[in-house]
Design brief:
The structure is a single chain. The protein is α+β, with helices and mostly antiparallel strands and about 475 residues long. Helices cover about 30% and strands about 25% of the residues. It is built from 16 helices and 18 strands. The chain has an 8-stranded antiparallel beta sheet with strand order 14-10-12-11-16-17-15-18. Strands 4, 5, 6, 7, 8 and 9 form a 6-stranded antiparallel beta sheet that branches. Helix 12 runs antiparallel to helix 13. The longest helix has 20 residues.
């Protein structure tokens, strides 16, 4: 397949077909209520007072931490995958909690809009993006996914459902649900902001030979008219900042869904054009660059795998099989090496970002590193369990690889170094992967006194695990 495609003036994505695409509306809401009634009846009738904690029955997950195989009462929410309503003019979409972003994007683009923040991987669910922490290249203006919330409904562990909004009786749960990781309840319906799109994205790749110039340029681009801003650190002297802008026409478009590799293009091109759909999923094909560990960036292997296997869904299955069988660890030990998986996303205030990058290059050594600026919501929208300072610009560092050493270290040695440095610099880290915080450090970082109040109100019988148990003790 040709790497570049001649582009007409308009593509199918984002062409404003809302008049021909009926809104879901009342019938979809009635079907949602019927699904919810079945789940509530099941939850209330399964012996809710049993000792085993409640957990979701899921075939897939985007978490990257091992979990104990202890007994759990499993709740099936796999039916909650529908778009309930969309209003492009008002700028919102109403969806169920387990819809994947690939389906949500397919539903919104024909209306000329997209979710205000679309996480990088197609299989991430909307409810998971809110209960966890999700980000992308619009986050420099829109914040994290939970900053784009308008209101949502939460199924509590006792089977009741509460409507959460920033100004109603459950505003504490509205601001306390993000980063709760299924320890307070499950989002079964969410209303999110959308933003208008145009058919194409013009991407400018701005190369820098030094960290100061890179972060200064990042600040300038965030203050400018870009629609998307992110970057990649290839080394301390090779940094690329990518600024994307919606455009109505493109002289050509690049295809990074098969033979060509997006992250390599950052150093090969100064300017690129992608259809908006392809741009949103530019990182999914190679799981950023983590497909290297499968040999998937070798042209022969790439063709053998084929387009259908070049995606985060396939890589996740392989990764979980490797973790279960211990293949990578065993091969390293045969070479006399010891390994530690370091899969982290951390958010650092912009004025301290260069210092964190120095630490990362010196102490951890993982490259490349993904860079994504964040501007949390303004004013009083402070989210309890992920307490970024409203209005202050942060930088997300994403680094995902295995660190090898010639001698054994304590469990989590490199991850602990990262955690301590993040806390020292006034940052915060996502909890989707391994964490090693002491209870005291965790309580300071993630507002555990406030969490205890939420737990007492919404799960007083302890039917769900606690946040520390789940995210650090891996219960």
């Amino acid at each position: 397949m040709d790497a570049e495609r001649r582009a007409p003036g308009r593509e199918r994505e984002g062409t404003g077909r809302a008049a021909r695409e009926p809104r879901a509306g009342q019938p979809a809401r009635e079907a949602h209520q019927a699904r919810l009634a079945r789940v509530v009846a099941s939850l209330r009738g399964d012996g809710a007072g049993q000792a085993a904690p409640l957990g979701l029955s899921k075939r897939t997950s985007n978490l990257f931490r091992d979990r104990a195989a202890g007994p759990k009462r499993r709740l099936d929410l796999d039916e909650f995958t529908h778009v309930l309503d969309i209003d492009p003019a008002a700028g919102w979409v109403d969806v169920e909690g387990t819809i994947r972003y690939e389906s949500l994007v397919d539903a919104t683009l024909p209306h000329g809009v997209m979710p205000a923040v679309v996480p990088q991987l197609k299989t991430i669910t909307v409810g998971g993006a809110v209960a966890g922490v999700a980000i992308e290249a619009t986050s420099f203006r829109q914040g994290l996914v939970h900053d784009t919330l308008i209101d949502f409904d939460v199924l509590l562990p006792d089977g009741s459902v509460v409507a959460c909004a920033p100004d109603n009786a459950h505003d504490d749960l509205f601001f306390g649900f993000p980063n709760s990781y299924g320890t307070l309840g499950y989002a079964v319906r969410l209303k999110l902001k959308t933003i208008p799109v145009r058919p194409f994205v013009r991407v400018e790749h701005r190369r820098h030979a030094g960290q100061r110039a890179f972060f200064d340029d990042l600040a300038r681009q965030c203050d400018g008219d870009a629609d998307f801003v992110d970057g990649v650190v290839f080394s301390g002297t090779d940094l690329v900042l990518s600024a994307g802008r919606f455009v109505g026409e493109a002289p050509w478009t690049s295809d990074y869904g098969f033979e060509r590799i997006y992250w390599r293009s950052l150093r090969e091109r100064e300017t690129d054009y992608l259809g908006v759909h392809d741009y949103l999923w530019r990182w999914d094909t190679d799981w950023f660059w983590c497909s290297r560990s499968l040999g998937a960036q070798n042209p022969v292997v790439r063709r053998l795998l084929g387009r259908k296997r070049l995606n985060s869904r396939f890589y996740t299955r392989v990764m979980r099989a490797n973790a279960r069988l211990g293949i990578t660890r065993a091969l390293a030990r045969l070479r006399g090496r010891f390994t530690e998986s370091v899969i982290q996303d951390v958010d650092i205030p912009l004025d301290r970002a260069a210092g964190f990058l120095d630490f990362l290059l010196r102490e951890i050594g993982i490259l490349p590193v993904w860079i994504c600026p964040i501007r949390p919501a303004e004013g009083g929208r402070r989210f309890t369990l992920y307490p970024l300072e409203p209005g202050l610009r942060y930088v997300n560092f994403g680094f995902w690889d295995v660190v090898e050493t010639g001698s054994p270290r304590e469990a989590g040695h490199f991850n602990r170094l990262v955690e301590r440095e993040v806390m020292r610099l006034g940052g915060i880290k996502s909890l989707y992967s391994d964490s090693f915080f002491t209870p005291e450090a965790f309580a300071r970082a993630y507002s555990m006194p406030a969490y205890a109040a939420l737990k007492a109100r919404y799960d007083p019988d302890g039917r769900m695990l606690g946040l520390y148990e789940k995210c650090v003790l891996r219960a």
